[in-house]
Amino acid sequence: QLQVAESGGGLVQPGGSLRLSCVVSGVTPAYYAIDWFRQAPGQARERVSCISSSGRSTNYADSVKGRFTITRDNARNTVYLQMNSLKPEDTAVYFCAPELYHYCSGAVREDSWGKGTLVTVSS
């Protein structure tokens, strides 16, 4: 059974930084692309970023491009999202999810979502 555990969220001031972590089990993380999503209260879920199985290819939403960086350590079954220059608009619950293929296709596995980790950006 696919399981995902997100961590690293918290309360930060605008302009601050956080590093989110996602540990994936139930599948072999090295075989799959991994996405980060976020959902703010009353808003639709947004795909923030994706990283290919090898880590050599990444995608970012326009809203976070230049501020967020996705990386992965397959030996640790972990994907990271480094978030810099945080804005109040970044406030959301952040989720990660494996995709179905090695590359970032947008086809996300739906069988198991984690609880997410809450990021709050406020002064």
Tag the structure with descriptive keywords.
123 residues, mainly beta, six-stranded mixed β-sheet, four-stranded antiparallel β-sheet, 0% helix, globular
Describe this structure in words.
- The chain is mostly beta strands and 123 residues long.
- The chain is 0% helix and 45% strand.
- The chain contains no helices and ten strands.
- It has strands at 3-7, 10-12, 18-25, 34-39, 46-51, 58-60, 68-73, 78-83, 92-98, 117-121.
- Strands 2-10-9-4-5-6 form a six-stranded mixed β-sheet, with no helix packed on it. Strands 1-3-8-7 form a four-stranded antiparallel β-sheet, with no helix packed on it.
- The termini are far apart.
- The mean pLDDT is 94.
Mean pLDDT: 94
> Pairing-aware structural class of the strands and helices?
mainly beta
Tell me the major beta sheet.
6 strands, mixed
H/E element order: EEEEEEEEEE
Number of E-state strands: 10
User: What is the strand arrangement across the widest sheet?
Assistant: 2-10-9-4-5-6
Whole-Å distance between the termini?
40 Å
Portion in strands? 35-45%
Query: Are there runs of 5+ residues with pLDDT below 50, and where?
Result: none
The portion of residues assigned to helices is: under 10%
Overall geometric form: globular
Cα-based radius of gyration, to the nearest Å: 13 Å
How large is the count of helical segments? 0
